[in-house]
């Protein structure tokens, strides 16, 4: 399968960068509690920024590229779960303090599966908790529902939703650049699908979806992105894709960024296999 221009740009950067192992990444920059900022970066701007970050003259030392088994790009697949009324989507749309996302993440190159809960912490930080999924288990099985209920009770003092089902799937390629205390994830070839309607949307081929992850204040990557005219976008894969796939939803806060990510084309109708 041919890769997109943005994917080839990311590959050029990560192949030229010094490698870092997963164990080293977790030691230097695991950041399960962090501040996330999203940027929609055209390929040419990404190349200029990433070459500076990974170059030997980068102030503070160069970023390294995550490498596992000789690979520096990895395929991710996520299944998000929500209530029939899309409680998680609407809680994020309304900016509710006690909001959360639930998903099953598959690392397709290794087959590893994780059940993940993303919470909003103090001052808008993101806190991610997870448990391995084994065998044919899914996020709807009893042990994971118990983990969800316990997590929401401890974190927010609220009960877990009674009814959940798959609400969105995402597939994409990810490469990661790492420095002490911060990470930069670089996603391309994003495809999002609505299990209810079978409709899909695809990221435009010349765009890199960049997320910076830091313990608090702006990191070196954020400052360099800002210097190149990039500002954080009002976009998440879950909410932005649902806003594009279901135009009847009141998701106006994400529509501008979703239009930039997915282009002006209408969502295609293809049946999704979960």
UniProtKB/TrEMBL annotation:
Protein name: Polyphosphate polymerase domain-containing protein
Pfam family, one: VTC
Residues in VTC domain copies: 70-245
Organism the protein comes from: Streptomyces orinoci (Streptoverticillium orinoci)
